[in-house]
Every structure is written in C-alpha cells, then in structure tokens.
Amino acid sequence: MSNELLDIKKLETFFYTRAGIAKAVNGISLSVDKGEIVGIVGESGSGKSVTGFSIMGLVDPPGEIAGGSIKFKGEEIIGQTEEEWRSFRGAKVSMIFQDPMMTLNPVLRIDTQMIEAIRAHEKVSKKEARRRCVETLAMVGIPSPAERIKSYPHQFSGGMRQRVAIAIGLLNKPDLIIADEPTTALDVTIQGQILSEMQTLCRKTGMALIWITHDLTVIAGLAHKVAVMYAGKIIESGNVQEVLDEPLHPYTHGLIGSVPSRNKRGQPLYQIPGMTPSLINIPEGCSFRMRCPHADEICMKEPDETISDNGRMVRCHHPL
Amino acid sequence: MSDDKTPFISCKNLSRVFVKKLDFAGKIARTLGSKIREEKVQAVDSVDLDVMPGEVLGLVGESGCGKSTLGRMLCGILPSSNGDIFYKGNNVKKMSTKEALHYAINVQMIFQDPYASLNPRKRVNQIIGEAPLYHGLTTKKDLDSYLEDVMLRCGLDPTYKNRYPHQFSGGQRQRIGIARAMAVQPECLVCDESVAALDVSIQAQILNLFMDLRKELNLTCLFISHDLGVVEHISDRIAVMYLGRIVEIASVEKLFSEPFHPYTQALLNEVPRLDKRDVDFAPLKGEIPSPLDPPEGCHFHPRCAHAMDICRKVIPEIKETAPGHKTRCHLADV
Ligand SMILES: Nc1ncnc2c1ncn2[C@@H]1O[C@H](COP(=O)(O)OP(=O)(O)OP(=O)(O)O)[C@@H](O)[C@H]1O
Ligand SMILES: Nc1ncnc2c1ncn2[C@@H]1O[C@H](COP(=O)(O)OP(=O)(O)OP(=O)(O)O)[C@@H](O)[C@H]1O
Ligand code: SF4
Ligand code: SF4
Ligand SMILES: [Mg+2]
Ligand SMILES: [Mg+2]
Q1: Which ligand 4 atom minimizes the distance to the CA of B301?
Q2: What is the ipTM, given to two decimal places?
Q3: Is the pTM of this model over 0.80?
C-alpha cells in the first residue's frame, strides 16, 4: 500500500450552531493514491468544501472534526499541532479555493504574497523565489507575468485572480492539491489550459489531485475516480467511466440527467424534485428518500455501503 | 417609443479603459525623465450591441476579455469611457431623474462573485427585503410572505432568512444574489456567471426558473457565462467576445452549426461534454495576449491558424456574413 497517499476513514465534521448540529461531513471514507485524480461531485451544501477544509485543518469553530481519521502517507493528521499544520499546508497539501480572495490578500501586491509563500517553506533568495513565481504564473496562463506580478489582486479580472490563486497553490510543489471548483468561473479555453497543466503535473511528478466540482463534464474528462456526495455522505464512488455510464444510485442518475448539453435546447431541464435536506434535520433513513422515485419502506432504514469487487461503492437499498 | 423593434438596452461604440495609476516611485522616475507610463487596459473596445425585448442574449469569451465590464456598464453601475447606452431607445445620459430611477430598478445585475457582492453584516431577509420595501413593492406587514415567496422561487429555504451570508454554502449564496435581484421585479437581468457556483441539479432549477420567468414576465436577459453548454441551452442569440471586442454574434443554431470566427471555432472545440472521457488536455497554442498590450490588427492573430498579413495590421470590421450573423474577421472580406 505504498502508493496510497491519503486515506480518510469515517470522517465526521460537524458545525455546532444555535439551531442545532449541522453534520456537514457525516462519515465519509475516501482514499487517494499517488498521481491519482479523484473527482468529488455533489450538490451545493453537500459538504464538499468542508471535506477539503478538514484535510487542510482549516475547520474553525463552531465547526469541529467530531470523529474518524485522516492519514497522510500513513500518518494521522487529525490533532496535529498548529506548527505541524503550518509546515503541512502549502508544502505537502495545498488547497485552491472556490473564492480566490480566500487565498489572496487584497492589500498586498501579488509578488509580495507569492515570494512570501515560497520563503515560508524554503530558504531561497528573493530573486530565485521571484523567478519561480513568474514561471508559475506563466504556467497558469497569466500574460506578461513579469510585469503583472507587480499588480494588486483587484487589478485582475475574476478569472485571472483565480489563476493567480492556482499558481500560489502550485508554488511549493505539494504531493496533493485539493482544487475546490477553481475553474468554474473560467472560460473553457483557459479551463482547458489549467486542466492540461494539472494533468501534466500529475502524470510527470506523481502529484495527486482532488478536484471538487459540481460540473460532471469536467470530471468526465479529467478524473480517474469519482465520489458523489449527498448531504454529507458519499453515496456512490468508483471508476469515472463506470459511474457515468451506469450510475447505480438514483441521485447520480438524476445528476447526469440534468446536465444542460444533453437536453434539448430551451426545454426544461431534468430537475431532481425537492430540495437538499437541512443538514441539521437530516431525515431518518436514506437522506435522499424524500426526493427519490424508488423510495419505499426499506429506505426508512439507512442504507450501508455496498462495495463490489471492482471497487465500486454505493449506498442504496435499490441500486439501479 | 418602445416596441419590439427597439432594443431593450443597446450600446453604440461603447468603450472602457482602466488606467493603473503610477505608484510614488513611478512618478519620481517619470519626473526624472524615465519613459515609464501609466498602464492602460482597454477592457471594452468600441462595442455595438442590441439586447432585444424578451430575448436571452448569451455573452461568452475568455477570462478577462471584458464581459463583466460590459455588463456593468449596461446596468449603469460602471461609467463608460466612451460611447452611448440606450435604455428602451433613450440615451441614458439624457434621461430625466425619474427615467433614470426606472432604469436603475428595472435592469438588475446578478454578480459573479457572491462572496464580494453580499454584505456580510446583513441577514438574508435584509439583503433580499431592503430594496422591495424601499421601492414600495411590498409593505412591512406583508414583507415576510413576500420574502418567503421570493426565496422559495429561488430554491432557498425560507427558514434560513435570519442567517448571515457566511453561513451558507457557495451555491446557496449565489441563490441569495439571484433572489435579491428578483425581489424588485425587474424586466431585465444581467446575469454574470450567476450559475457558475451551482451544481447541475440546482443549476437546472435556476435555469428552468429563468426560462419560466422569461415566458411569464417577458424577461429580457443578458447572460454572461463561460459555460457554453448553459449558454447554448437558454440563449436565443450568442455574442462572442475576445479582448474587449465582440468578434461574432449569431443565433444559437447558427453559431453552433456554422461558427465563422476562428476563435469561436476554438471555443466550441474546448467545450467539456459528458461523453468526452479521459481527455488529453492539450495546452492552447500561441501565447495568450496581454490586455495591457493587445496585438495590433486582429487581436486573435497570434493564435489564429488562418492569420494573413492584413490580420497583423488592420482591425477587421464587423460584417454580416448571413442575415443576423455578424463577425469581425478578415476571412469575411472576400
Ligand atoms: N461556518 C459554518 N457554520 C454553520 N454551517 C456551516 C458553516 N460552514 C459550512 N456550513 C454548512 O455545511 C454544509 C456544507 O457546506 P460546504 O461549503 O462544504 O458545501 P459544498 O458542498 O462545498 O457546497 P457548494 O457546492 O455550494 O460550495 C452547508 O450546509 C453549510 O451551510
Ligand atoms: N477596476 C479595475 N482596474 C483595473 N483594471 C481592471 C479593473 N476591472 C477590470 N480590469 C481589467 O479589465 C479587463 C476586463 O475585465 P473583466 O472583469 O471585464 O473581464 P471578464 O471578461 O469579466 O473576465 P472573467 O471571465 O475572468 O470574469 C481585465 O484585463 C481586467 O484586468
Ligand atoms: S436507499 Fe431508497 S430512497 Fe435512498 S436512494 Fe436508494 S432507493 Fe432511493
Ligand atoms: S482576422 Fe485574421 S487573424 Fe483574425 S480571426 Fe480572422 S483570419 Fe484569424
Ligand atoms: Mg464548496
Ligand atoms: Mg467577469
């Protein structure tokens, strides 16, 4: 099992709010090998980002990791000291956030921030650090990087800010990148370019990638493995081809059906009925029960994970 | 004088330049005779565009090409550097205060970045309810049911109305932005990547909502997005933008079946689809030009496989290649 980089077991991350306990991540298990690209898809609010924050040790009160384990290269990282986290973040695992302004400091110039990010982990000269920064900016497609590195974040368009944030994530060549919907705001040619860079990095350096998105079409082209999240749980996972061609879970099936390009233009899109359950009052039994066309009495009981020989997992009493 | 032939919003020769002011060292260097200059970004360059009443016009293009800047100018929330904007046929520079207020309420923008556009210190009910209350669309007494209605419509659980924006997930926040805009019952929406953060099942709800509202209220919409699948699904016409200029505009059918401009063709090639598996993502050919120093002539020539001598020198005019199909490319000259 030397190829295994990350191993999450029964992770629980809860938010203790005044209205009750929001079980944002409710017992998920997931493993990532070296060089592997894993897609996490799921509805908004299903806990994808919180999963990423948990791996990065970025869950702040009222949130807390309530149970489970996260092993990185075989070592438990839950409960690391703040110092251990600081050397872990950026150098071993880095996260690219949905909102680039979570990475960027609005009052500092880009070069100041990037050079600092390198020198926090490595003793290199400012000049060498700057060279690497410019190189990385060019890699993510920032035009005239040597000049534009002197700008402030607000002087960039939304998409370019995101590319800068991605560049910062790549600076210290981490073993694992957690990318939280970083290309959703980008146009397809730039997205294609960033996906290409990420893919090359994974293939060349053995860097692993967790790609969080709601966009199944990106996962289709990029990932090896996919995990579908619903209300804090992974309800289906497996090889991308198999999951997309023959989804086992009714929710995955609905997701695939609501992708616009597959539907006739101007026609209403397939809509999974109902709304995401509140994470504070998750219905008893299968959490998809209220919206599922196949629900019956058995579904009042929570379905367990069923894992088949080829590594496909599904949590449903009546897989399709 | 507004009828079906008068565009709901249009612009003529609309431009916007951003100037990056010199810092202190730069100013000193300049007084000492250095050639250092202020950096200028021509974010929007001489754009002519008509948004017809009741239509959904999709606006697509590379990141940084000026889509948001154009959208913000059309909404009247960003001044232009040059050119004119017309609201129902009237030049907005010459409107009365009353007309200007009407324009401000009636054309609403939904922002790309729900984090930056929602006031973190206000509760959701304030964020959504403030404007309709102010404009007399509801009363204090009816506000609760009014809010409930708007929130449900936009796929938000009304029991969350006392929460602050940071207590929602990215997609939920996006819906708050949509609900805020819909709450003043506008006739026209400028949606800037407004479904970008939504997963497909909610995206489907929101897109269905747009399509319903549009039918019900004859809503006019400028839909800015990078997602060609989405734009293809809901738009009547699509305008393609590249480095500040509109390079092609056509009906959806024509644009997808007979794209004329080489950039449009490149864009269509990159659209991710569910049936495209295990793609070898190829890096794009040619350097992405800097908006600080755009190439002369046709902005696309450094990346264009068909580039000719003239393309490097002369800006192509916008030409009609077929009824309703316009493009800005020298290949259309002959
Ligand atoms: N600070 C917080 N306090 C209370 N609840 C929170 C907090 N942060 C997140 N949550 C809740 O945790 C759940 C999961 O949120 P998360 O951001 O992980 O969703 P997501 O899957 O990333 O969604 P999206 O696709 O919209 O980004 C949400 O229901 C959210 O309301
Ligand atoms: N306030 C500003 N100051 C200086 N330059 C700006 C400002 N706002 C935008 N720009 C520049 O104008 C150009 C167009 O930006 P704009 O935000 O309109 O692009 P966009 O097409 O919406 O891109 P994206 O798809 O990434 O959102 C970019 O080069 C950007 O850097
Ligand atoms: S367990 Fe029952 S309710 Fe849940 S997805 Fe399967 S069939 Fe539907
Ligand atoms: S004008 Fe010339 S360079 Fe520009 S797109 Fe047309 S053929 Fe290509
Ligand atoms: Mg998220
Ligand atoms: Mg924009």
Answers
A1: 3
A2: 0.70
A3: no
